[in-house]
Amino acid sequence: MMPPDESTQPNPAPATAALPDIAPADYAPADNAPPISPFERLGGEAAVRALVDRFYDLMDLEPAATGIRALHPGTLDGSRDKLYWFLCGWLGGPNHYTERFGHPRLRARHLPFAIGIAERDQWLGCMVQAMDEQGVEPGLARQLAESFYGTADWMRNQGG
């Protein structure tokens, strides 16, 4: 008997899994100053807000994103705020999300939604396009895309 194709199996992480570390180990300004956070590299709160807004605009506009869009409420205002609050802290800026809601518990909060490979890839497609359109530095965009992929794949609870 052949083992199941891993690409179609959900990939849950243990409940204690940490969020991916997105700060590059070797990215620091000259003179041994502390590393610059991805939040700072993006341009702070205004840039994170612009990225999130473009991400959700694309989710509304792109026909290829209809599956992931259908998992969201009719109006995206609350989703925009929550992702913005979350990303600020996740990227190394203010912890707006945890101050309001506590630990993000991402997987638990997403379990009620059927998330498979298609939904993961649609979410990532919108985010990668938003980063490109917002002019995120290519090296940072690649690094973030890798981290977003790991987190989005961790959200999967469906095989396909």
Structure description:
This protein is an all-alpha fold. It has one domain: Globins (Globin-like). The protein contains eight helices and no strands. Helix 2 (45-61) crosses helix 4 (77-90), helix 2 (45-61) crosses helix 7 (117-133) and helix 7 (117-133) runs antiparallel to helix 8. The protein is globular.
Mind sketching the topology for me?
Layout: H1 38-42, H2 45-61, H3 66-69, H4 77-90, H5 96-101, H6 106-110, H7 117-133, H8 138-155
Helix pairs in contact: 2-4, 2-7, 7-8
Catalogue the unreliable spans: 1-21
Q: How many β strands by DSSP?
A: 0
Number of helices: 8
Query: How much is the average pLDDT?
Result: 86
CATH architecture identity: Orthogonal Bundle
How many separate domains? Answer: 1
Terminus-to-terminus distance: 21 Å
Briefly, what CATH class? Mainly Alpha
Give the name of the CATH superfamily: Globins
| Residues in helices, as a percent range | 40-55%
Strand content: under 5%
Major beta-sheet overview: none
